[in-house]
Amino acid sequence: MKSGLEKYCNKRLTEEGFDFMYEGKSFEILPPFIYEGEYLSMTAKKPNLVDKTGKLVRGIKYTPDFILEKEKVIIETKGYIRSNHSFPLRFKLFLSYLVDEGMGDWSVFLIKNQTQVNTAIEIIKNGKAKTK
Question: What is the pTM of this model?
Answer without folding.
Answer: 0.83
